[in-house]
Amino acid sequence: MKRLGFGVLALLLVALPPLLPERHLATFVLLTLAAAVTVGVSLLMGYAGQVSLGQASFYAIGAYTAGLLAVHGTPPLLGLLAAPVIAAVAAVLLGAPLLRLRGHHLAFATLAVQLILLSLLAQADWAGGAIGLQGIPRFSVGGFELRNDLGYAYLSCGVLAIALLVARNVVASRAGRGLRAAATSEVAAAASGVAVGGYRLAVFALSAAFAGLAGGVYAFYLGYLAPGSFPVLLSIEYVVMAVVGGLGTIAGPVVGATVIVLLVQVLNTLGTQPGMPDYAPTVLNYAVYALLLVVCVLFLPKGLVPALDRVRRGSLDKARSIR
Amino acid sequence: MTNGAELTVTGVDRAFGGVYAVRDVTLSVAPGELRAVIGPNGAGKSTLFALIGGQLAPQAGEVRLDGARIDRLSAHRRARLGISVVFQAARIFHGMTALENVMVGAHATNGAGFLAGALRLPVHHREERLIRERALECLARAGIADWADRPAEELPLGQQRALQLARALCAQPRLLLLDEPASGLRAGERERLATLIGELRAEGLTMLLVEHDVAFVMRLADRVTVLDLGGVIAEGTAAEVRADPRVIAAYLGAAPEETGPEAAAAAATATATATETQTATGGERDAGTAARAAEDQGQQNAGVREDSASARKGAEP
Lengths: 323, 317
Known about the structure:
The structure holds two protein chains of two kinds.
Chain A: H1 2-19, H2 22-47, H3 55-71, H4 76-98, H5 104-123, E1 140-141, E2 144-145, H6 149-171, H7 174-184, H8 186-191, H9 196-222, H10 232-245, H11 252-271, H12 280-299, H13 304-322
Antiparallel strand pairs in A: 1-2
Chain B: E1 7-16, E2 19-29, E3 34-38, H1 45-53, E4 60-65, E5 68-69, H2 75-81, E6 83-86, H3 98-105, H4 114-119, H5 122-141, H6 157-170, E7 175-179, H7 187-202, E8 206-210, H8 214-220, E9 223-228, E10 231-236, H9 238-243, H10 245-252, H11 261-281, H12 286-296, H13 301-315
Parallel strand pairs in B: 3-8, 3-9, 6-7, 7-8
Antiparallel strand pairs in B: 1-2, 1-4, 4-5, 9-10
Helix pairs in contact in B: 3-5, 3-6, 5-6, 11-13
Protein name (chain A): Branched-chain amino acid ABC transporter permease
InterPro entries (chain A): ABC_transp_permease (IPR001851), LivM-like (IPR043428)
Transmembrane segments (chain A): 31-49, 56-74, 80-99, 106-131, 151-171, 202-226, 238-266, 286-305
């Protein structure tokens, strides 16, 4: 059943992009990148019990790493590979003190980190300052340049696939068992030899690496980066996607990201209808996140994927009992 | 077979809010010894275990394993040195199968990290196979092999306790701390546990056993250490301890009377809980009561309630 799910997803990711019209392809790329970031957020929240309200900072760090390296003549592939590494290193440096904080404290601390990062980026002339970093070359490997959106759609699909695969492998490994154990009883996990603090830091770094990698693709895709591209709302969006999709599930982030992105698209269309005030899209965006979170916590506390699983299993049981 | 470790505890102190839960406790357990630690509720037994297992750090004194100081090490480091704990409350991991729970126990002996798992390096596959085999053996040893693929939280209480023991064994410990492993078990399960503990002793594993059921303890242990009000009040063989007037006084909360050792032990079991309620009103033992309250914070109500239930049963004619 699990394998089937992966197969369907893979098929969808491969077959869908060429069928999409150009203007929807951009949405597809951003959706896929957001899903990759959300895989990390879901891992962090679902398995390490930590909430990060600053995940977009790692997305930004990855994007700026790739962008700056490429602007200074480094081969794009190296820049893209450096993006997750630098993001993970940043997460370790930040996480060592931050992960001592628990629950809401960590959430606020990561939020603060992002605000600080945005303000630093806006003042950093070497990174383009508030105007932004321009002239990032297109992504290329050994003379082959990725020009059109279709190429980036596949590149971001690759990133998402890597994130999903790594997340799945980690969860089903010795380290993942240690993490899941620590989620119910930290004391018993530690007594079994699980270095709980170290593990949480590692998951934080891993989630940052996913965000960094996605950020790297984003930099090459847009060719332009500004602090304004990474608002706090983006971080909140990842959390909402993770919660709506279902924490601690592998498919959850993909489902969550899809639902949210499509919903936002619809609302944007609605908000930009003639006669709507110009603040309508923003207001609608914020409102929909808030509403979705509330509805999800009230009616689907475990998220969409586990809920759908239950429905499916329920109907199977019914079918069996009828037989 | 197992290479039991030597445990030396020297003058350890631990206070909660200025009240000592453990005070100046010195204790030495030889390799392969099964040492029982008994004492009234709140005597400091669980705190002492936490100081050895690493859940708490002592404020003074030393804990040594095979001569090396471990009292500043975190719990997971101590686990890697070969200390395994069976907690008083069944602390099992939810959302995982029984088998996975036991596999977590092998954490202390293996090293494959995040990278090995994420990239599925050969070391991951090699270790997974070994861990799985060992975990299945441990489940069988604890008598719950049939539950291997069930979610751990669906297991009945007795099986959850057995699961915890299987997890501890999967770490291939050299020192096993058993905090009231028999509480809440039915007679048959209790017998089975006693047999398993006997086997582990024969294999040379060093064990420390806290138990309220004095008869259970006396039958199994090589030596017995009696704690009261956070300090050691007696130590020796089961017979020596039973005859010790201070032990009887600690359990009855009064001067020892002329009773046979068997009767004293039975009375001790029966009144272990009653003593606590009595002393709660006694002014002279206020410090002790506070210490008990401090220690009880760390214990789950379920465990305590079971103890009172079994103690009450013992008191019935």
